[in-house]
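Objective 1.3, modelling of assemblies. Example input:
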Amino acid sequence: MATLEKGEIIANRCLAGPYWEIAVRLPQVAVAARPGQFVHVRCGAGLWPLLRRPFSLFAVDREAGEIRLVYQVKGTGTLALTKKQPGEELDVMGPLGLGFPLEPGLRKIWLVGGGVGMAPLYFLAREAAASGLTCDVFLGAVTAAGLLHQELWRGVAARLELATEDGTAGHKGVVTDLVETVLRGNRPAAIYACGPLGMSRRLAVMAAAAGVTGYASLESRMACGVGACQGCAVRLKDGSYRLVCRDGPVFRLEEVEGEPDGP
Amino acid sequence: MAPDLSVSLGPLRLKSPVMCASGTFGFGEEYTDYLDLSQLGAVVTKTITLQPREGNPPPRLAETPAGLVNSIGLANPGLEVFLREKLPFLRRRRVPVVVSIAGNTVEEYAELARALEGTAGIAAVEANISCPNVKEGGRLFGSRPATAADVTRVIRRSTSLPLLVKLPPLFPGLMEVAGAVEEAGADALAVTNTLPAMVIDVQARRPVLGAGTGGLSGPAIRPVAVYLVWQVATAVRLPLIGMGGIATASDALEFLIAGASAVAVGTATFGNPRAMVEISTGIAAYLEERGMSNLREIIGSLRPGGCS
Ligand SMILES: Cc1cc2nc3c(=O)[nH]c(=O)nc-3n(C[C@H](O)[C@H](O)[C@H](O)COP(=O)(O)OP(=O)(O)OC[C@H]3O[C@@H](n4cnc5c(N)ncnc54)[C@H](O)[C@@H]3O)c2cc1C
Ligand SMILES: Cc1cc2nc3c(=O)[nH]c(=O)nc-3n(C[C@H](O)[C@H](O)[C@H](O)COP(=O)(O)O)c2cc1C
Ligand code: FES
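Predicted structure (C-alpha cells):
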C-alpha cells in the first residue's frame, strides 16, 4: 500500500556535477518498497514547481526505515530539491507503480543502466543478490562523472562493464554497443534496463533478436502518479497507450516499441 | 458547534461543498490510500464517453508557472467498462457519485444520460460541454447559447437525475450561454473548465504537447475563474460549482463569496492528495471564527469594492 508520508531528510549532497543523492527517513515507504517502484516527491514548498516529481528508489534500508534517491538536476523541481537541508521534512507519496519482477528460477541477469537510470537497478541488484542471483552490470553515461557510485556497484556486480560517450572511462560509446558485443557470446536469463527511451528501445530490438526476455523502466511526465489523470501515457509496440505510473514504470521489453525507422 | 457545511445543488444534496474536479481524481479508487472518500462532498468521475477513448498522443502534460497545461483528450474506458468495473467500487463508498459525460453528438449525450438513468448509485450527471482537448463535441457545444441549450434540453428529457452542466471559459459570451443552459433545464452550473493554452519548446520550435495545444489549470487561472463565477452568478439563479486553481480554503472562499454554492478541486490534488479534506476543514474554521453557523451565510456574500 502506498502512503503520503513526511519524513526527515538525513542527507542531501552533490555526488558529481548535476548528480545528487538524498536520504530520507520514511519507514512506511521503505517497508513496502520493491525495486523499480518510484516515489512522487514534493520538491519545493510554493506554487512553482506545482506538481510532484517522480524518482526511482535507489536504495532502501527497511530496518532503518530509510530510502535513498539519486537525482539529476534538470529543471525547477530537481533544483528546488537540492535546496532541502538535512533535518527538514520531505513530503513523499509512495511506493508507486509496478516494479521489476524477479521470476523464480532465474540464475543470471543483466542490468543495463543509462545515466541516472542506474538508480532503480541498484536496489534491484541488492535484492537479487540477497536471493542468490548473479548480476552482470552494464552502465553508460555521457562522461566519466556520470558513472555514479562505482564502488557500490563493484560490491554487487559479478561483472561490471562501463561505457562513456566521450571515452573518459570504460568503453568509448553507448552502453548498448557494449551489451551488443557481449550478447554475441553470452546470454542472460533476462535483461533489466533503465535509462533514456532510446536506450530501452534499442535494447528491446537487441533482446528480441537474441531471444532474451527482459524489462525496461520507462519515463514520462507525471501529474497524479496514481493513475487518475491519464497524463503519463506512453505508446507501446502494439500501438496502445499505457500509464507509466500505474501500468509501469516497468514494462516487458517485448512491449517496448523498437527503434524508429527514421532519424 | 461545528458549522453546517451542507449545500443543495438543486435536487442534489451534499454534506460538504468541496468535491473533486472531473478528470483529476480518476474514478475515486486511485486515491483511497490517501483519503476517505466519504469526507468529500461528491466524487465527480473522469468524463466518460459511449465508446472507450485512448486519448491524445503524449506528451500530455506541461507545467507552467503555477499552472498545468494538459491535453489528455478525454482518455476513458467508455460507458460499459465504467458501469461494470468503476461504478461498483464508488457505489460502496458513502459519497454521492456525479458522472461526467461527453458526446460527439447531442444524441450521444442523450444516450449516456439514458444509460445512467436506471443505474443505482448515481447521484447526478455532469454534462461536460467544455473540453478543449477534443475535436468534435466538447467545447463546441458549450461555446454558443443555442447548442449549449440543445444539449441541455436533450439530456434533461433523457434523465430525471440532477443535471449539472460544465461550462467553458468564454470572453465574452459566458453569461448568455449560462442563461440558455438555465432555461433549458439544468439544475446547476460548473464554472470553469480549463483555459485554452499552448507551450512551445523554443529549442525545437515545436509545441511541447503532443496534441499541439491544451488546457490550463491550477493557481495561474484562479483569478480568471473567480471572475467568471462572479459574472455567471449575476446572470443566473442556478447554484454554481466554482473551480479553477483552488488549493486552499481561502481560495475556495473566494469562489463561495463570489456566488458559488460549492467548489471543486482539481490540479491541487496532484501536489497534495489531501487538499480537498484540508480545504473543507479550513472553510469550517473560517465560518466558526466569524460566528457563522451555516455555509449559506457566506455564499454570494461579496460586499461592494472600495474603501470601507
Ligand atoms: C518513474 C520515474 C522514475 C524516475 N527516476 C528518476 C531518478 O531516479 N533520478 C532522476 O534524476 N530522475 C528520475 N526521473 C526523471 C525525473 O522525474 C525528471 O528528471 C524530473 O521530473 C525533472 O524535473 P525538473 O522539475 O527538474 O525538470 P523540468 O523543469 O520539469 O524539466 C526540465 C527539462 O526536462 C524535460 N523533462 C522533464 N521531465 C521529463 C520526462 N519525464 N521525460 C522527458 N523530459 C522531461 C522538460 O521538458 C524540460 O526540458 C524519473 C522519472 C520517472 C517517470
Ligand atoms: C489532467 C486533467 C484532466 C481533466 N479532465 C477533465 C475531464 O475529463 N472532464 C472535465 O470536465 N474536466 C476535466 N478537467 C478540468 C478540471 O475538471 C477543472 O475544470 C480544471 O482543471 C480547473 O480546476 P483546477 O485548476 O482546480 O484543476 C481536467 C483537468 C486536468 C488538469
Ligand atoms: S501521472 Fe496521472 S495517470 Fe499517471
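The CA atoms of residues 61 and 108 of chain B lie 28 Å apart.
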